[in-house]
Structure formats: structure tokens, C-alpha cells
Specification:
The protein contains 6 helices and 9 strands, in the order E-E-E-H-E-H-E-E-H-E-H-E-H-E-H. By secondary structure, the protein is an alpha/beta fold. The protein has a single domain, classed as TIM Barrel (Alpha-Beta Barrel), CATH 3.20.20. Bound molecules: S-adenosylmethionine, the ligand Nc1nc2[nH]cc(C(=O)O)c2c(=O)[nH]1, iron/sulfur cluster and magnesium ion (MG). Its cofactor is S-adenosyl-L-methionine; Mg(2+); [4Fe-4S] cluster.
Length: about 240
């Protein structure tokens, strides 16, 4: 299988959601079926960056991950773009044979059989502020495809009150999925510093919404990598 890869980097720490803080190597797939207005990874989405996406075989991808991790098994995070456009089953098989674990981040718009091979599937359906509309039938197909994956979680980005209300409805419809909320980052230019006060104010706003409403099921987390590195790429 030949994969279109925007970047492979690490080891770093997983900055978001269920595996926050866990050492990981990222594989960022090139290409996405969405165009979220606030996407922080447009270099893996917009076809203007296509020239920088490298066609790599499963083995070539795996060799890079092994080199970056020094051959010591860790959790590999497959993100993008939408990695579900492509077939990562070969890479996952190569890694599992060497004792590595796999997590994948996807918006839940395309289901793939290889979801069942993952240790963690992060489904991140997009709220109204993204400008995208969720196809809930496709989302359900992702859940079905992932049967066998022990850790399926929801991660929702919240920019405003409408996103927050939407997340509450999603939580109601999926009470069995652990839910992680993260404030949206409005500053996504990799060449501009992030204002940490703005970042923590948005986190505080979200924490106060959740606690004020007595909504005690989600976990509220910052993007740890943004606090540490801002919008720097490759971390
Ligand atoms: C870049 S996306 C790639 C994977 C997949 N396309 C998805 O959206 O889940 C990885 C995660 O970053 C989140 N994200 C993207 N832009 C963001 C922003 N400006 N602020 C906060 N989270 C953001 C997405 O919602 C998603 O949970
Ligand atoms: N450290 C770190 N954590 C992340 N969690 C999700 C990321 C992503 O862009 O998919 C990401 C990323 O790019 N870096
Ligand atoms: S689905 Fe993910 S990668 Fe695609 S545009 Fe939205 S945030 Fe960016
Ligand atoms: Mg990111």
C-alpha cells in the first residue's frame, strides 16, 4: 500500500484527549474530506500543500516510526487530515508485530475495517462553528467498524455556546462513549505566537460552563502541546 503522508514526527506527547501526556509518535496523513474553518492542520488538508505530501509504502512509514522511537514500543498516533481516507492496516500490522500500540484521530465521516485493529479510536465530530455538517449515519458506521477496539472515545472542540449545546446533545445520544471537551484555538498560524492568556481564558470559560451546569460526565482538557509549543509544527 502506498500512503500519502504529510509528516511523521516525535517522540512527543499526545497533547489532547484520552491519552493526553502519553509519549507518542505521530503519523499525519495528507488529505481530508472536511474543511473546518478553524483547522489547525491545514498543511495536511488543503491541496495547495499536496506537493509536500510524500507517497510512502507501509514499510517506509514503519521504518520512520521505528527510527524515531528508537525501536522502543509506544503508542503511535495516526492523525491527519482524515486518515480514514487511506488504508493504514498494513502499517498497524507491522507495528503490532513489534509490540507497538495504535491510536487514531478522525472526524467519523468515513468508516474503515482497520478501526477494529486500533487500541484507541478518537472520534471527533465537528460542531457548528467548524462550518461542517456531521453525517450521523457515517458516524454510526465508524462505531460499527470499530467493534473490537476496546477504547472508543469522543473528543469535541468547543468554540462558543452553540458548540457547547451541540456537544451536550451528542453526549445524550452517545452516553456510553467517554467524552473529552477541548476549547477551540482561534490562533492557528504556525508563524505567530499563541497568546497563553487567551488560551487559558477559553479553557476557564469551558470549565465554568461545565461545572456551572452540573454537567459532570465530560473531561475538560487543554491542548497541552499548544500550551507548551504554541502552533509549532512537528511536536
Ligand atoms: C487536526 S484534526 C485531524 C484528525 C481528524 N481530521 C479530526 O478532525 O478529528 C485532530 C484534532 O484536532 C482538533 N482541532 C483542529 N483544529 C483545532 C483548533 N483550532 N482548536 C482546537 N482543536 C482543533 C480536531 O477537532 C481534532 O480533534
Ligand atoms: N502533541 C500533539 N498532540 C496532538 N494531538 C492531536 C494532534 C493532531 O494534530 O492530530 C496533535 C499534535 O499535532 N501534536
Ligand atoms: S476534519 Fe480534522 S483535519 Fe479535516 S479540516 Fe477538520 S480539523 Fe482539519
Ligand atoms: Mg493538532
Amino acid at each position: 500500500m502506498t500512503l500519502r503522508i504529510a509528516e511523521i514526527f516525535g517522540p512527543t506527547i499526545q497533547g489532547e484527549g484520552a491519552l493526553i501526556g502519553e509519549p507518542t509518535v505521530f503519523i499525519r496523513a495528507g488529505g481530508c474530506d472536511y474543511r473546518c474553518s478553524w483547522c489547525d492542520s491545514m498543511h495536511a488538508v488543503d491541496s495547495a500543500y499536496r506537493h509536500a505530501w510524500t507517497p510512502l509504502s507501509d514499510n517506509a512509514v514503519w521504518d520512520q516510526v521505528r527510527d524515531l522511537s528508537g525501536g522502543r514500543p509506544l503508542t503511535v498516533s495516526i492523525s491527519g487530515g482524515n486518515p480514514a481516507i487511506q488504508d493504514f492496516s498494513g502499517v498497524i500490522a507491522l507495528g503490532k508485530a513489534e509490540g507497538y500500540r495504535f491510536a487514531c484521530e478522525t472526524q467519523g465521516s468515513i468508516a474503515k475495517p482497520w478501526f477494529a485493529e486500533l487500541d484507541t479510536l478518537v472520534l471527533s465530530p465537528k460542531p457548528p462553528s467548524s462550518g461542517e455538517t456531521v453525517d450521523w449515519a457515517a458516524f454510526e458506521n465508524c462505531l460499527t467498524a470499530a467493534k473490537g477496539c476496546r477504547n472508543i472515545v469522543l473528543k469535541i472542540v468547543i468554540f462558543d455556546d452553540a458548540d457547547y449545546a451541540w456537544a451536550q446533545q451528542v453526549a445524550k445520544n452517545h452516553p456510553d462513549l467517554p467524552l473529552y471537551l477541548q476549547p477551540g484555538n482561534p490562533e492557528v498560524d504556525p508563524n505567530q505566537p499563541v497568546d497563553l492568556q487567551v488560551t487559558t481564558d477559553r479553557l476557564l470559560w469551558l470549565i465554568e460552563k461545565v461545572t456551572g451546569d452540573g454537567w459532570f460526565t465530560p473531561r475538560v482538557l487543554p491542548q497541552l502541546h499548544v500550551l507548551v509549543w504554541g502552533n509549532k509544527r512537528g511536536v
